[in-house]
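Archive transcription. Copying these from loose printouts into the bound notebook so they stop getting lost. Printout 1 of 2:
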Amino acid sequence: MMSNWLHNKPASRQWSKIQLWIFVAFATLFTIVGWAVVRETLAYRTLTTTIAQLRAAGIPTIEAMAAQLDGATHREGSLAWAEVLELATNSWSRQLGANLPYIGSGEIPELTPEASLGWKDKDEVEAYLTQCSPVLETLHSLSSFPAPVWLPLESQGISTPLTYHNNISYANNMLLLDAELALHQRGASRAIRDIQSSLALADAFDWDLLLSTKHASNWTRARTYSMIRRSLQIGLWDEEQLSQLRALVEESATEIESTLPALMKNQLAIQLPLLESGMPWHDNHHNVLFRKLAGLPSVRLSVLEELSSWASLPAAGLNIIVANAERISQENALGWRLNTYSLELDQWYRTILLNFLMTEENRRYTLSAIAVKQYHLKNGQWPEHLEQLESLGLAPDDWLTSWDQKFGYEVEDGVAYLWTYRIPLNPGQVATPDRTIPDIRPDYSSQPNKELFPESTIAIR
């Protein structure tokens, strides 16, 4: 009897240990679940209270933003614009255009006076554009309608204008491809027409409503400026055509700084119904678990706090705005809200704000390049320095970067080279508390030349 008891004692002790571990595991699980329930309950209360405070403070409603869009846009041409965007999107096919530049993933060909006839895909491009000529003709005709145009805008949170943005990109790609072919065929009138229609497309959807809607039109302008600069490489334009291009670039300047606070607040406001209801605030993910987690009160509160921090961004110069964006991003990264959703929002805001800065930079850069060629045609020689462009009516700011650095310029072997510099964004450099930006400009004392910045140099002929 005693021997049986001694024999079973180790097994009893082992079972007791197992029971203890099971108890500890369940206790830990219940503690975690209880903590999560309390955390989510408190987060939900804070979320609803904060949203109520924002509404009481006069944050715009969806209805108010719809009325704002209606009052600031034109109904004339709405149906035609909607139809042509749909046609432009549907005109692309993997079989027809996947290997073409702009439209698909094809490489943009070299464009110089010597290589302009050596585009191996030119026949395929011509066939595609011939098939799409009705869409192109419609795009050209719509530039006569008043801008911006009204289209219905369904509230979908951060991805609200995504469909229009994609459709605008398809239409812009088609116009850029047609302009590229025109340049290779030295068809100046056709190229200018495409450039005009591309900028008209940007104007048509230049909605001062949301940060994301403004981004769509700005992106279209920036790509059109690049095409204009590209065209200056082959000595195609006469004085009248250059004046026409310059007028297009000058007229395309947009005011961002003063409207940015309202755009930021609207961007926050359009998220509130989704954050309040628990519906997916971010519709770009197909991962079901991701979207389920995004509906948790704690995550929604994190998103709301992050959006609120961005909505507090003050009006200022674009360079200061971008510096403040870096500051906000770093503050968010140091806080408890750091998660996948916060990182995505930070990246989204910073990318769009940097796009605003780069678009204005590209506009000045393009304007200076056009003026250099104008000076050459008018005087029979290249300007010795950019200050001579004042004789053509350019202001000193037109040949300066956003941080007041003059564009690089030199003449070599009868070709004028103009270049810009990488935007000096230093992640370790943040704006000071009084919202001014410290001196973060690079040291240009070494007199850099075009070889240091080959990716952003224009060879003007």
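Printout 2 of 2:
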Amino acid sequence: MLTMDARNFHGWDYRRFVVGHLRREAGNDPQALAHIVQQEYKFTTQKINQSFSNYSAWHQRSKLLPEIVVSMTTEEKNQVALNELDLVKNAIYTDPEDQSAWLYYWWLLGRAPDHVTLLGAYQMESDPSIVILGFNDTIRFMQKPRLLDQQDETLDCRLYPFDANSQNAASIWILQTTGAAKRVVVDAHVILPSTSAKSIPHDKVWNLELNKLDCNIGNLHFITFLLGSLASKLSDEWKPPATRMYADPTLDDQTSWFTLDKLKLFKDEIETVRELLDIEPESACK
């Protein structure tokens, strides 16, 4: 089907379905999985070279590229990024009115990273068994954070999302323990943001000492509400996902896999767009 009509959405959907089945059959065999990804990547190259105006091929390429470069050296990844920029700029110069290449160009350049951040970790002064974590985005946990005591021993704890509209996602999370917690440790790789507005910082580990939340008038209402909510949410205790959860690459910083100078890169690409506008003053790229 894609041989006759390389842009057929139904054909690309079915191909993704077949590839997904092949991935499941490959299981945990890294060589088999790498071969599948390489073959698909080559297929997108073939279809793009046949016609730059192929949204499905560009889109599929954006999903495959982070997997293609995962085992490469930093220098190799940077070279791949430069090669991809050359490819997509050729497409843009060939047909500046076509949006498919522009979308891939935007994806490749990425955006300024806006990372998920653990804003604070608090322990209620009146009830030290309650620990509160606050994030700058609604997040999901794939594993529980670790609560540590004075001897850095891990404490057993229960985890609850503080959100009336969700049982597994929240920006405020409550940990309940029977021990005397001193610190909390959260690995960034065990959380997922709720939207593409935020990304996960790579290799980040938050290791925070708990701040005491005193019972002043402002906090007292919050603490009372918190305890009442916790009592009503005992059935909503966090549980490990029944199926393995994967971080969607589109939720991550798209350019995190290469280390080219971002400032220089953007300056160069701005010049590229200006040059194109000089050639095609009525182009949609403006």
